[in-house]
Amino acid sequence: MRQLIAGNWKMNTVTAEAAALAQALRNGVPGCDVLVCPPATQLVAVAGILAGSPVAVGGQDCHWEAKGAHTGDISAPMLRDAGASWVILGHSERRANHAELDETVREKAVAAAAAGLAPIVCVGETDEQRSAGRETEVVGWQLAGSLPKDFAGVVAYEPIWAIGSGKSATEEDVETMHAFIRAELLRQFPETGAAMRILYGGSVKPSNAASLLALPDVGGALVGGASLVAQDFLAIARAARPG
Ligand code: PGA
After folding, report:
1. What is the pLDDT of residues 147-190, one digit of tens each?
2. What integer pLDDT is reported at residue 242 of this predicted model?
3. Nearest to residue 222, comparing CAs of 36, 41, 51?
4. Residue among 225, 229, 232 at smallest CA distance from 209
5. Centre of ligand 1 from the C-alpha of residue 191, in Å
6. Confidence of residue 93 (pLDDT cuts 50, 70, 90)
7. Closest ligand 1 atom, CA of 164?
8. Could you report the per-residue pLDDT of 119-143, keeping only the tens digit for each?
């Protein structure tokens, strides 16, 4: 399975920074799929710079409706129109800062697919939940609640305590959780679950990318902080398992 290395720029970059980053990534990296998810205000410019390049562009969130009275929100067809082909959904920062529930994420995934966007649905437990030994239970509920019945996208396992902390999950933790997620996907989607990519996210950097990306059932990485530095992001993509 070809790995996907996705950069989540979060609420970073003004025009000049976004353009420089996109220019530096333009050639992509052979052997893996590369995706960048800039903030919405940079989508059109970044998609323009990356047009005709192997690097895909995605949004960081979308509304569950295609249009309407939703001040400040952005719909899936709008992202598509701006040049996106992917969208991140249910990131823990959205779940925490915007009170997104599994059900909301599921409706967004339906809207994304209807607009022709491939969704990356994020799941992951808090430090507290892991300390209580509840990590698989929590992720199991998130998968059951967040993925629509005809889901055709990517799942990203992002333990919340590993995001932006500089401390990624251990290889053993990633391997165990990805095996659990694979089993859940096969249960929910017997026909397609085997081929769905499961990304790992949380403090992925050039120094740990190769070992994380070599693990079984790791279909790529969702990269936050390190995706803002072109040479770091490219180094992570070069560490992808050839496929
Ligand atoms: P990080 O963020 O790489 O900065 O830990 C990952 C993410 O939130 O997607």
Report:
1. 999 999 999 999 999 999 999 999 999 999 999 999 999 999 99
2. 85
3. 36
4. 232
5. 31
6. very high
7. 5
8. 999 999 999 999 999 999 999 999 9
CA dihedral 113, 21, 10, 51 (to 10 degrees): -10
Q: What is the pTM of this model?
A: 0.98
Residues enclosing ligand 1, CB less than 6 A? 8, 158, 163-164, 201-204, 222-226
* Alpha helices per DSSP H over the chain: 15-25, 43-50, 76-81, 92-97, 102-114, 127-131, 135-146, 171-188, 206-213, 230-238
Query: Among 100, 135, 158, 184, which one carries the catalytic annotation?
Result: 158
Going by alpha carbons, the residue nearest to atom 1 of ligand 1 is 224
pLDDT tops 90 at residue 112: yes
Which of 126, 134, 187 lies closest to 158, judged by CA? 126
By most ligand atoms within 8 Å of CB, the mutation choice from 60, 223, 227, 232 for ligand 1 is: 223
CA of 13 to the centre of ligand 1 (A): 16
Ligand 1: residue whose CA is nearest its atom 9: 224
Q: In order of start, what are the domains of the chain with their CATH numbers? A: 4-238 (3.20.20.70)
Q: Does residue 158 have an active-site annotation?
A: yes
